[in-house]
Amino acid sequence: MQLQVNGQSVEVDADPAMPLLWALRDLLDLTGTKYGCGVGACGACTVQLDGRPARSCLTPVSSAVGKRVTTIEGLGSALRPHALQSAWIAEQVPQCGYCQSGMLMAAAALLERKPRPTDADIDEAITNLCRCGTYQRVRAAIKRAAGAKA
Q1: Domain of 92: which CATH number?
Q2: pTM attached to this predicted model
């Protein structure tokens, strides 16, 4: 199957029903996307499909064909971080960090859709679970990034 991942066309030899998460991690060595619960509840595996957040543990790789897949590796770089990545650091969001890649991908999709999100917008869009409870810092980082995008 031909996929568009982080702006690159890649070929994956996988069962069409294989979860996208495993194709990314095991076949493409993009390990920034994390396995959390395997049932789509925690959001650690969140990537973007055509700019919309998707739980990759539930998404068959075949449903990503013809769509733009963006993982945390495609969000920004060390030399050119995404505004959210800079805000995440400034607001000291991560503790254990396990949920952060999925949280960042959901937040990036939110800011693309709503450049100036309200608290209610953030609550609706960020359904990812954080066992460290950094939700208030996540909210502050999203707002900081929204201000940086102005």
Answers
A1: 1.10.150.120
A2: 0.94
